[in-house]
Amino acid sequence: MMEGARQRGGPPVKGDPPQEGGGGGGDEEGGVALKKEIGLLSACGVIVGNIIGSGIFVSPRGVLEQTGSVGLSLLVWGGAGVVTAGGALCYAELGLAVPRPGGDYAYVMEAFGGLVGFLRLWLLVLVIFPTTLAVIALTFASYLLQPFSPNPCPSADPTLDPALRLLAAACVVLLTGLNWASVVGATRLQDACAAAKLGAIGLVIVTGLVRIAQGEYFWLAPPQAFSGEGGAGAWPGVGPLALAFLQGSFAYGGWNFLNYLTDELIDPPRNLPRAIFISLPLVTLVYVLANVAYLTAMSPQELLQSQAVAVVSSAPLTTPAWPHPALTTPCFFPQTFGEKALGRALAWVMPLGVALATFGGVNGSLFTCSRLFYAGAREGQLPALLAMIHLQRRTPGPALLVT
């Protein structure tokens, strides 16, 4: 299947070069193992890069709608970050107690045995990861085409459907090749995409802070923020508040992906919790400030009428824009947050920034899912071919291809 590939822990093949010792190149059984090449910075890039995606541009509407007020919605965003950080730290303890790749799958195997682990594995590899990867890739294609498309909503234009699908497929193929070629290259790309995402949201935040300095903070003042007038019109009950937390938590999804890569993390006892301590507070702060910035350029009523607030029109929608029956990707409209806050000359920066965010999401999903296939094959619950890694590159090539 792949020249130079050998199954981890398998018998040596005649003519093979001697196995590397120490340095993360081999393992205790003398076989070939994945290298430990993910340091603290790359670990933070994995977490931040997988968390920040289109969620921060889509979820604000749902959170505000369920909470009924601007102030409470901001508290929910902060609270969801605190809850997520707590879950991530518990997950870090699991990762150190069960030092095997595979994340959820490895822990379910350890706690409930092979059958439950097998069901969890196949649910992930047949349903959850493939559909997530496809949706993120299609979202990337839609955002990338938006500044160059005559149609303000590329995913709703049937004539652009082939271009969207081809661009999404090209994105997946390109990133699969990069992940096959080099772990370091894939992690550096993830770091760059994480920086681009923070840059795009940072532009939103700086714009919001400038507008606050200019006196544009009517809906953030306490009398309006907690009056209920800026949201759905009434204080929520327990049910709507729980739904608001669910909407906010969607934007924090991906916090657990680093645990899938413990075999490749340098010094996991130190770097795994450190990466969480750095990444989760950073993402929480960024999300809260981004929502503050949105409300300096858009009224709560305008935000409730929009879909993806940073790139979607604040004008009332006459037809449901998302999800589209063919592609589950956000649609776009001429009047955007970027145009209102940055002006038409810089409005293209926002969809481009979100495109980079989703591009990093595709890379992170490929990186993580391939390690899940690899872990399942090592446990004997997937074909042994998927546990093979390239002798020189130390990347799980067959697992990447199947992903």
UniProtKB/TrEMBL annotation:
InterPro entries: AA/rel_permease1 (IPR002293), AminoAcid_Transporter (IPR050598). The keyword Transmembrane applies. It is a multi-pass membrane protein. The chain crosses the membrane at residues 38-58, 70-92, 121-143, 163-182, 194-213, 233-255, 276-297, 345-369. It comes from the Eukaryota. It is found in: Membrane. Keywords: Membrane, Transmembrane, Transmembrane helix. Residues 1-28 are annotated as: Disordered. GO terms for cellular component: membrane. One of its GO terms (molecular function) is L-amino acid transmembrane transporter activity. The keyword Transmembrane applies. This is LAT2 protein. It comes from Pampusana beccarii (Western bronze ground-dove). The lineage of its organism: Eukaryota, Metazoa, Chordata, Craniata, Vertebrata.
